[in-house]
Design brief:
The chain is an alpha/beta fold. It folds into two domains: about 140 residues, 3-Layer(aba) Sandwich (Rossmann fold), CATH 3.40.50.2300; about 150 residues, Response regulator (Rossmann fold, 3-Layer(aba) Sandwich). It is about 45% helix and about 15% strand. Helix 2 crosses helix 11, helix 3 crosses helix 4 and helix 5 crosses helix 6.
Length: about 325
């Protein structure tokens, strides 16, 4: 072989080697992210999810890709969105925005691992067989925020001792609506308090519910856990202020922007755990060996400024137990 031909052969091999090496590298795993609503009200939750992925050793865009599917509040779109993620053969599906997205994913596949975040009891909702041993291809994070109505009623009664009647607002279209209503009603009956149920599944019905509160002179309200209410948070807080309604909410985000009081678990942290679980599954762990995570602590946040505006004196017992008091 002539020297010039030999050099040309070496150069061609050197140029081809990186392409061959790249072709042999494993494809980047893809996570399917399915949510009932849109990203605009929940950017902090997506950030928390990415933080959890980072803790598990994955960086979006570098070592893992995420395919986001948002249903924009249209529940009937969820089955098709879940089916599309299955067609894309994602490595794992994570769901948020309530039980409806988790159910859609579970219906779409019995083989792709699914990790959910839902505020209800995942056993009663049919997502897993038990918390410690979920079984099948589904596990997740359960803050249990939607079953804390009794505790929120207790806290509201302590903060508004003059109230003789209470109300609970819930979304009748939520799969957890009946559980939420029964929880609060049972707690009210146990202490001999009358409680009125109000429903709202769109912004006009929210307006109507608060008008009804004002007409009935019901000044104490429990706002049930529901992603739809989270989206309409500004509207709810504005109406509560207009009609001077003392209300308790499920997450600290309400109290931080003017709500009277909140009691519940840390939702961003639940989404961080969602990212951690997704990362662990990508590393080879099985959903059946990952117990449903539950919070070990619930947060009580009181907005003292709002309390003063409503003419309420916060008892020292509540101040002492509050995780945060907003001046």
């Amino acid at each position: 072989m002539k020297r010039r031909e030999f050099i040309t052969l070496l150069a061609g091999a050197a140029a081809a080697w990186p392409l061959g090496a790249r072709a042999q590298q494993p494809a980047m795993p893809v996570i399917g992210f399915l949510h009932t609503y849109s990203i605009s009200p929940f950017p902090d939750l997506v950030g928390a999810f990415r933080q959890g992925l980072g803790e598990a050793g994955f960086v979006e865009g570098r070592t893992v890709a995420v395919e986001y599917h948002w249903a924009q509040g249209e529940f009937d779109r969820l089955p098709a969105l879940a089916a599309d993620l299955v067609r894309r053969n994602v490595a794992v599906i994570v769901t948020g925005g309530g039980v409806v997205s988790a159910r859609a994913a579970k219906t779409a596949t019995a083989t792709i691992p699914i990790v959910f975040v839902t505020g209800g009891d995942p056993v009663k909702l049919g997502l897993v067989t038990s918390l410690n041993k979920p079984g099948g291809n589904v596990t997740g994070i359960s803050p249990f925020i939607s079953v804390l109505g009794a505790k929120r009623l207790e806290l509201l009664r302590e903060l508004v001792p003059a109230a003789t009647e209470f109300a609970v607002l819930f979304n009748p279209k939520s799969p957890e609506a009946e559980t939420v209503a029964n929880d609060v009603q049972a707690a009210a009956r146990a202490i001999g308090l009358p409680i009125h149920t109000l429903t709202a599944s769109n912004e006009h019905e929210i307006d109507a519910a608060f008008t009804s509160l004002a007409e009935r002179r019901l000044g104490a309200l429990i706002v049930a856990t529901d992603p739809f209410f989270t989206i309409r948070r500004d509207q709810i807080l504005s109406l509560a202020a207009r009609y001077a309604i003392a209300a308790v909410y499920d997450t600290r985000e309400y109290a931080e922007v003017g709500g009277l009081m909140s009691y519940g678990s840390n939702i961003p942290d639940a989404y961080r755990q969602l990212g951690v679980y997704a990362g662990r599954i990508l590393k080879g762990e099985k959903t059946e060996n990952l117990p449903v995570e539950q919070p070990t602590k619930f947060e009580l946040v009181i907005n003292l400024k709002t309390a003063k505006t409503l003419g309420l004196t916060v008892p020292n017992t509540l101040l002492a137990t509050a995780d945060e008091v907003i001046e």
